[in-house]
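Open question from group meeting: does this chain pack into something compact, or does most of it stay loose? Before anyone orders reagents, we agreed to write out a predicted structure and look at it together. Recording both the input and the output here so the notebook holds the full record.
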Amino acid sequence: MRVAVFSTKPYDRTFLSRAAATHGHELTFFEPRLDLTTARLAEGFPAVCAFVNDTLDAEVMAALASGGTRVVALRAAGFNNVALDAAEQNGVTVLRVPAYSPHAVAEFSVGLLLALDRRIHRAWARVRENNFALEGLLGHDLYGRTVGIVGTGRIGALVARTYRLGFGCQVVAHDRYEVDDLKAIGVTYVGRDELIERSDIISLHCPLTPETHYLIDEAAIARAKHGFVLINTSRGALIDAEAVIGGLKSGRIGGVALDVYEQEADLFFEDLSSEIIQDDVFQRLLTFPNVLITGHQAFFTEEALLAIAETTMGNIADEEAGKVSPNRVLSENVAGKG
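Structure tokens returned:
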């Protein structure tokens, strides 16, 4: 099948081309993001491959359908950028990659906490300037601290196990579905409010839904332990960034590590080092010494990219063969965005 691939980087070309050759697809790569102005590039392509910051709203879906597109294959797990009702109305099948390498994201999440809490990023910068002083680099032992895991799916479960078995932390969790294997190793499931109130560290691993939007807001920060640490590698809109800034200024929040940001579509995956960033909230976050931000790279391992490419191309092959892929996304799945 002929596939128009948007938001492509060199690594996308490498891994997707390899997988496409296996399934017999013909790929055309476009560097721009998919939106209403670029949707015309997909005219004549029966399939489009999109990424997390591409716009797939109702207007774009209609434009794609009018150009002959019948399949949208997301090379990501999340689909909160997709107008699913519009896709169904226009006869467009939406496919995703529900799981690629949960280890990649889980390991990166724990790495963010270690770097933040032990000031590794600041120490690295100091040493490069021949400054070997330790003042200002004081951290904490993880052993015995209480870590709250919001969302215990594949990724959250791995993170919970790492903190519980690897570091000897007390782990509390919140999820609609409890995992017996986690409870067997001492993970305690509690309500969302109790988790926020008890945790020294809060790590977010849940999908973005209307119920989880701004999960960490001003009220949640006010209930939390003084000096708690917040880690988010899931979806940017799980936290209210302006409320987090207020919590950092007051000292209510002791540290923040983010791999995602609510308005990241205008920032991440691009080299903006010679430009003036117009997002004042993002720029304010960067001024805090106890904030560590990375550009949505938690998924970025060779193993994950191989899995994403293979699943994405396999999804398209299933559609081409008339098979109903288990990775189809329907409008009734909206509560399960992740």
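Observations to bring back to the group:
The CA atoms of residues 151 and 175 lie 5 Å apart.
Residues 302-320 form the longest helix (19 residues).
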